[in-house]
Design goal:
Blueprint (H helix, E strand, L loop, with lengths): L6 H9 L4 H8 L3 H11 L10 H11 L4 H8 L5 H12 L2 H13 L4 H14 L3 H14 L29
Helix pairs in contact: 1-3, 2-3, 4-5, 4-7, 5-6, 8-9
């Protein structure tokens, strides 16, 4: 099966300023198909704020890896602890979060789509563990879990010496 839309020609026509409707007629597809394909082919503008390694980290996360695995793939990391630290730090960066969202939306993985898929797993799961995992992922998607907070409490107590000789029995 040959592809109807040639990506190189599509990008060239788009760069020349040809309207989406005219491009769609040329390829014999709908304007929505052209718009969707252009969205996937064009680089999200948020990527301009990222370094090459951060961009690779974003792509690894969007590809399904966890923070540690993505950091190990994107950065030259010597230890697992370093990868965990880098992954955690990067996931707190708003530019990284926006880039991940942009990539997932460009691939058609919007929040509504993901929730619908999770709902299907919850409703149709034969294995209860699959259903519970889907519910857990859905709750994480909605930020239902509170952020964990660690607190250290240091108390210094100064005691004056007390003369206990008067209380001794003789």
């Amino acid at each position: 099966m040959t592809r109807k839309i040639d990506d190189q020609k599509l990008l060239k026509l788009h760069a020349e300023g040809v309207e989406g409707k005219a491009i769609a007629e040329r390829f014999g597809v709908s304007p929505a198909a052209i718009s969707k394909r252009l969205k996937r082919l064009t680089r999200p503008p948020i990527f301009d704020a990222l370094t090459a390694k951060e961009e690779r980290f974003v792509m690894e996360i969007a590809g399904g890896k966890n923070q540690t695995q993505a950091a190990m793939s994107a950065f030259d990391v010597g230890s697992l602890d370093s990868a965990k630290t880098i992954g955690s730090r990067l996931m707190k960066d708003t530019d990284i979060q926006e880039a991940i969202t942009a990539v997932m939306e460009a691939e058609g993985l919007t929040r509504r789509y993901l929730v619908g898929k999770l709902k299907g797993h919850v409703d149709n799961a034969v294995d209860p563990s699959v259903s519970l995992r889907a519910v857990d992922l859905g709750l994480k998607l909605h930020d239902a879990y509170p952020a964990t907070k660690n607190m250290n409490l240091n108390i210094n107590v100064d005691c004056d010496p007390v003369d206990l000789s008067q209380f001794r029995q003789r």
